[in-house]
């Protein structure tokens, strides 16, 4: 299967010229079924001039309610790691591979459900539109779903983490962990080591755009 963003970039029949236009279009998206149960589309956030774009998997419960990416527990951990790595969140663009929250209801709780490959492929349309307009120096894929959206099925977090790869759409892509995976690892003995490794990844990404 080809990489997703290459085809997605050329599928856009009437390309938007402003991020706000893409955001407005995405707000009414019904391209897959995920919009039906979620509260709203959670579009990316940050300056159009960002050199660094971070791509996660999908919004979580808090993001779905707030309509903003990375504002839940994983986002708070990411903020802490940004600070340690010397990265200013306000200068970066943060988004997700999939723009609606997929979950399974369990009582009053909504439990995260992993988006299917098909849902990631359909939603890559919006990610491609964001990246076409921003044209960052580096896109950081946070976790396997983002890596799949950006590089296709060949990408493997365990093997490709920490190196800059080139996507078929011409983007420089750097793969690392998703902060929600780090949150789970915090309960394990090596949790702090994993956080430190993630901060090192962030520093490497920042150094790549600063060189
Ligand atoms: S998940 Fe993506 S493709 Fe599916 S409805 Fe939401 S914005 Fe559209």
- CATH class type: Alpha Beta
Which ligands, by name, code or SMILES, are bound? iron/sulfur cluster
CATH architecture: 3-Layer(aba) Sandwich
Order of helices and strands: HHEHHEEEHEHHEEHH
Oligomeric state of the chains present here:
single chain
Structural class: alpha/beta
User: Total number of β-strand segments?
Assistant: 7
What is the residue-mean pLDDT, rounded to a whole number?
93
Fold-level CATH name: Uracil-DNA Glycosylase, subunit E
How many domains make up the 3D coordinates?
1
Strand content: 5-15%
Helix count from the secondary structure assignment: 9
What does this 3D model show about the protein?
By secondary structure, the chain is α/β, with parallel strands linked by helices. The protein has one domain: Uracil-DNA glycosylase-like domain (Uracil-DNA Glycosylase, subunit E, 3-Layer(aba) Sandwich), CATH 3.40.470.10. 44% of the residues lie in helices and 14% in strands. The chain is built from 9 helices and 7 strands. The N and C termini lie far apart (33 Å). The relative contact order is 0.19.
């Amino acid at each position: 299967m080809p990489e997703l963003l290459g085809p997605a970039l050329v599928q856009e029949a009437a390309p938007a010229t402003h991020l706000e236009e893409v955001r407005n279009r995405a707000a009414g998206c019904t391209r897959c079924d995920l919009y039906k149960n979620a509260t709203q589309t959670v579009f990316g956030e940050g300056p159009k001039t960002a050199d660094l774009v971070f791509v996660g998997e999908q919004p979580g419960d808090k993001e779905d309610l707030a309509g903003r990416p990375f504002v839940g527990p994983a986002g708070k951990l990411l903020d802490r790691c940004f600070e340690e790595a010397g990265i200013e969140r306000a200068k970066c663009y943060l988004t997700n591979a999939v723009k609606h929250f997929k979950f399974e209801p369990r009582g009053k709780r909504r439990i995260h459900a992993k988006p299917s490959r098909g849902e990631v492929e359909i939603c890559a349309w919006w990610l491609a539109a964001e990246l076409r307009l921003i044209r960052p120096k580096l896109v950081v894929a946070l976790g396997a779903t983002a890596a799949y959206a950006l590089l296709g099925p060949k990408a493997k977090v365990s093997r490709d983490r920490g190196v800059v790869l080139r996507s078929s759409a011409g983007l420089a892509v750097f793969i690392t962990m998703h902060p929600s995976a780090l949150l789970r690892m915090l309960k394990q003995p090596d949790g702090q080591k994993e956080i430190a490794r993630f901060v090192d990844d962030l520093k490497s990404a920042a150094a790549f755009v600063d060189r």
